[in-house]
Amino acid sequence: MQVLKPKLVKIYSQDELIKQYAPAKFMLNAGKLVSIKDAINSNSYSLGKLQREHSRKFTESIISNWLIYLNETLNLNNDMSIEQIRLASVLICEEFYMLKMSDLTLLFKRIISGQYGDFYERISINKVLTFFRNYLEERFEIAIDQSSRDHRDVKQNENN
After folding, report:
1. Band of pLDDT at residue 7, cut at 50, 70 and 90
2. What pTM does this model have?
3. Side-chain-facing half-sphere of 114: CA atoms under 13 Å
4. Of 29, 86, 27, 24, which Cα lies nearest the Cα of 59?
């Protein structure tokens, strides 16, 4: 009879986990994410999965770090305040839980590169949520198109 050895699992503190999801770490690999299709097909965790596995507060902390990173990177005259960042994090976790970390990386890459327009030296909760909504709308269109194409391919293979 074979004795199964338990797997050694490293236990991370909340701070260590949050560091693992640091935006700078993800942005180093942002070049691999060229399209929303790349983000969709990525194996990264969704915000919803992070909330289920760790906690809502943990996920909000991750989003807060991303928003702080955005503030620092854009170097605007009127940054979001800590309170605005906290509120935006709550709203993002509520409304955009289906987005993956790869989506966040691509979205923030687009924001930073100016793809969503000029900021006129300020950023607000409204602007951030608008960026997220525009991204999500585009993502849904691509996902629907990809799903339709996959369905069509399966049907075609069944007929052959």
Report:
1. very low
2. 0.83
3. 3
4. 86
